[in-house]
Amino acid sequence: MITAGIDVGSTATKAVIFDGTIRSMAIVPTGWNPKEAGRSVFNEALTRAGLLEQDIERIIGTGYGRVSLSFIDKKVTEITCHAKGAKFLFPKTRTVIDIGGQDSKVIAIAEDGAVADFIMNDKCAAGTGRFLQVMTGVLDITLDELGRLASGTKPASINSMCTVFAESEIIGLLAQEVTKEAIASGIVQTIAQKMMSLTSRVPCLEEITFSGGVANNPEICAILSSAFGAKFNIPNRPQLVGALGAAIVGFETIK
Ligand code: ADP
């Protein structure tokens, strides 16, 4: 029994082939054509697994672009998929924090693994990967450098959560010769504050599992982990948690 999960995100499209364990995975940029990205990531994952499309018994699509996939068997929300994927990787997960390209969410998981509650920030870029991308653009650094610079430095105060206003604030801080390290640290603190404010609205129980592309950044993970002060699991490939969960949903329906 082999299934596939395809997660068409705002920034990246991910696929996982699953047979009870992760058989292969792939990530491609979503670009302007989510339909093509979904097809291409699926083909790449099939090739890596040494399989053909007809070997896959069920294909589940998730992510904002799932509607554009015509070759899948079923569409499932990212909330369900991130919860499933996180629970598979870390069975004691009770909260998932997902920070992706254009939204961030907190998902509360009941003891039996069902989604108990969730809250999502998808109306603005604050507290998302997009926010970080804009800020690294102003500082002329990469996302990886942002984490490294932020690590262990006293944060500059950035008062605005709004991406547009925060960008102006950072330009002002650079003009006052505040160091890039302090600004980077302030930017990461802003993300931590945004996530803390989301978690004040849903129960946030241990263990917490961090998913989504921003969790690729070890320094950001460390800062969030200490802000939350709870057991904080970081998957090896955090961006793939949603696609993994989608493949597991498919697996469970034919078990
Ligand atoms: P989506 O599903 O919305 O496409 P993903 O979960 O795939 O989002 O994550 C994409 C986001 O992850 C991008 O906005 C990017 O800024 C962020 N990201 C990727 N790698 C890193 C990194 N090393 N540090 C910080 N952010 C990162």
Task: Tell me what you see in this structure.
It contains 8 helices and 10 strands. By secondary structure, it is an alpha/beta fold. The chain has 2 domains: 1-90 and 237-255, Nucleotidyltransferase, domain 5 (2-Layer Sandwich); 94-234, Nucleotidyltransferase, domain 5. The strands form 2 sheets. A 5-stranded mixed beta sheet has the order 3-2-1-4-5. It has a 5-stranded mixed beta sheet with strand order 8-7-6-9-10, sandwiched between helices. Strand 7 and strand 8 (115-121) form a beta hairpin. Helix 3 (129-139) packs parallel to helix 5. The protein is globular.
CATH superfamily of the largest domain: ATPase, nucleotide binding domain
Order of helices and strands: EEEHEEHEEEHHHHEHEH
- The number of helical runs is 8
Q: Distance between termini?
A: 8 Å
* Tally of strands: 10
Give the structural class: alpha/beta
Note the overall shape: globular
C-alpha Rg, in Å?
18 Å
How much of the sequence is in beta strands? 15-25%
Any idea how many domains?
2
In helices, the fraction of residues equals 40-55%
* Poorly predicted spans: none
CATH domain class of the largest domain: Alpha Beta
Q: Biggest sheet: strands side by side, in what order?
A: 3-2-1-4-5
CATH topology of the largest domain: Nucleotidyltransferase, domain 5
Major sheet details = 5 strands, mixed
CATH architecture of the largest domain: 2-Layer Sandwich
Mean pLDDT: 94
Ordered list of secondary-structure elements with their pairings:
Layout: E1 3-8, E2 12-18, E3 22-29, H1 34-49, E4 58-62, E5 74-75, H2 78-89, E6 95-99, E7 104-109, E8 115-121, H3 129-139, H4 143-150, H5 163-175, H6 180-199, E9 208-211, H7 218-228, E10 232-233, H8 241-254
Parallel strand pairs: 1-4, 4-5, 6-9, 9-10
Antiparallel strand pairs: 1-2, 2-3, 6-7, 7-8
Bound molecules: adenosine-5'-diphosphate.
The site of adenosine-5'-diphosphate (ADP) has 21 residues, from α3 and α4.
